[in-house]
């Protein structure tokens, strides 16, 4: 009891000291009214209450850590955790806290602890209030919207507190996970071998590779051939990942191509979840008249460009002689923005390709680093419009509490509210072909304000090709479909930022038999267990889209379900039971956009987890352990 109180008291003391230092500085600068502002005092009081609430949560739900800092004397089993990101560290901490030995395998170095959060830009932060991002009960956030450094710091603190340093094998790639044959097993528990088996036998495997791996580099005609060759040096992941409701998203499934090359796949340049991203800006773009390209090029420019040859700052040119040009300036992935200092952005034209969380964050990062109005033009090229919801914990929580995980007859009420309140003045950006409960939204307060003030130009369209000094975009009007022919415009660019998401991590180290046809990711038992073997758990590795967060209490719940199945043979589901559960959910959500498990809300996830107990009354005796984490500790 003393430790949480001590930590909270120390954190509150730091906030008060920071408040007093800032007050003294403001008074010294002659800003007396600012120093004595009641608003500053009110914000301090709110932060103290916020920290105190977290202290109560820690006291009630944090599992003890003192007995698991060394090797457990008599563990109930051994568990392999693949991946040392936020989910992997949290899962392993729960395992050892409940008397199960764990080994974490991480293919990268110690510097990669934290997964995607170790790679994103330093300006990246949570899109949602951190009260909805409590990936472990021991977490204590100082701010409502912590940034990358704070998040990695909390991951590291949990990793150390639960003795995971000695249990983590860095620079160790998992190449195979194979089942021990029945005639070679030494117990009635499942038995698995990792790689060559030098670490012994494991009773279960938790795969925490997430849904976003290496940065996804797209190829557009006119790009230099070597673009993306150094991608491995700049691996990162984005809001989503982690991501959240709102901090995450899915691996990008689409290639940006000329409109006539559209392959009919997902329309979104979606990003990965989990989490991690702030947001940025874009601006209303007036679309030119429709009509065949050759006719429009011959029309009087003064009808559409005020005689200047530009449209809202967009240079309009003919491109017949530019098709074989190669872009001669800088092309980077959004995960590399930290490598460009602010002074190098001054006066530069920046084109961001991608409208998801990392695209918004990229624009915001550029605008923040260029001070004093010294920036050039900033453009966002959006292949599809995304729903943008405010950073309001009440609104975000209510949206996540929709229990059906799909568009419902009254969902239009939320869309009407957001359109006329949050999108006031920029209704042109409201998605026309996607409901609020059909894809992971971007959570942002500043984005639409940037749209209103014109700090960044929002272009709805498809990048067609690069030229020597820019990019040609198929500019589409609102309501036009992907692949529709719009008007080709040329955006001058000194820097092109590819905010195009991340590749889906490979899980070929797992046997294909664990995921038969029709039961691959995300169509899994409780969306995270292999339907063929409950001892293979894939927390946050089957995620696609949701209004809910990947970095919250479900990590511990899923881990404890696995521990119960290891301890209680009678609680275990059969492959037939697990496939039936998937089939029932698919029947209930038939017709849902993206499939039954392509999108879910956090309330729906909670219903699944409660149903695990209620549909099998013999499991009810474990409900307080699974849902609250109470009981089962090292002796």
Automatic annotation (TrEMBL):
UniProt superkingdom: Eukaryota
One Gene Ontology molecular-function label: NADP binding
Positions in coiled-coil regions: none
Keywords, alphabetical: FAD, Flavoprotein, Membrane, Oxidoreductase, Transmembrane, Transmembrane helix
Compositionally biased tracts (Basic and acidic residues): 283-295
InterPro entries named among the record's database cross-references: FAD/NAD-bd_sf, Flavin_mOase-like, FMO-like
Biased composition (Polar residues): 304-315
Keyword Cell division: no
Region named Disordered: 281-320
Transmembrane segments: 596-615
SUPFAM superfamilies listed in its UniProt record: FAD/NAD(P)-binding domain
Sequence similarity: Belongs to the FMO family.
PANTHER family per UniProt: DIMETHYLANILINE MONOOXYGENASE (PTHR23023)
Name of the protein in its database record: FAD/NAD(P)-binding domain-containing protein
Organism this protein belongs to: Pleurotus eryngii
Top-level taxonomy: Eukaryota, Fungi, Dikarya, Basidiomycota, Agaricomycotina
